[in-house]
Design the sequence.
């Protein structure tokens, strides 16, 4: 069983930046991507970005393109994926979750004030 632990959330003003981290308890298979999702109050959970462990293939939702960057730690032993979020907007306020296959982290709260 893979355990995922997110960190890096917090309160930031609009236009600010945050970097979220997702640490996996073990080396995950290259057969599935690591993904970030988010869920705002009263809304469904939505996909944000994904990255494959092999290579540098990434995908983003339109709202994340140009502002968010997903990456993985160069040290493979850390089994960690990041989500760098720049130019944050109040509508980015949500709980951000890390996902691998059918495993989910506990989430980390991101709050953007106007």
Sequence:
């Amino acid at each position: 069983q893979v355990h995922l632990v997110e960190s890096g959330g917090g309160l930031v003003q609009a236009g600010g930046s945050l970097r979220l981290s997702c640490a996996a308890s073990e080396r995950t298979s290259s057969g599935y991507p690591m993904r970030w999702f988010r869920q705002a109050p009263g809304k469904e959970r939505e996909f944000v970005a994904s990255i494959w462990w092999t290579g540098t293939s990434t995908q983003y939702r339109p709202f994340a393109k140009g502002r968010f960057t997903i990456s993985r730690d160069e040290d493979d032993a850390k089994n960690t994926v990041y989500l760098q979020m720049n130019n944050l907007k109040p509508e980015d306020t949500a709980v951000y979750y890390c996902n691998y296959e059918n495993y989910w982290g506990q989430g980390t709260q991101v709050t953007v004030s106007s």
The chain has no helices and eleven strands. The radius of gyration is 13 Å. Residues 71 and 82 are 5 Å apart (CA to CA).
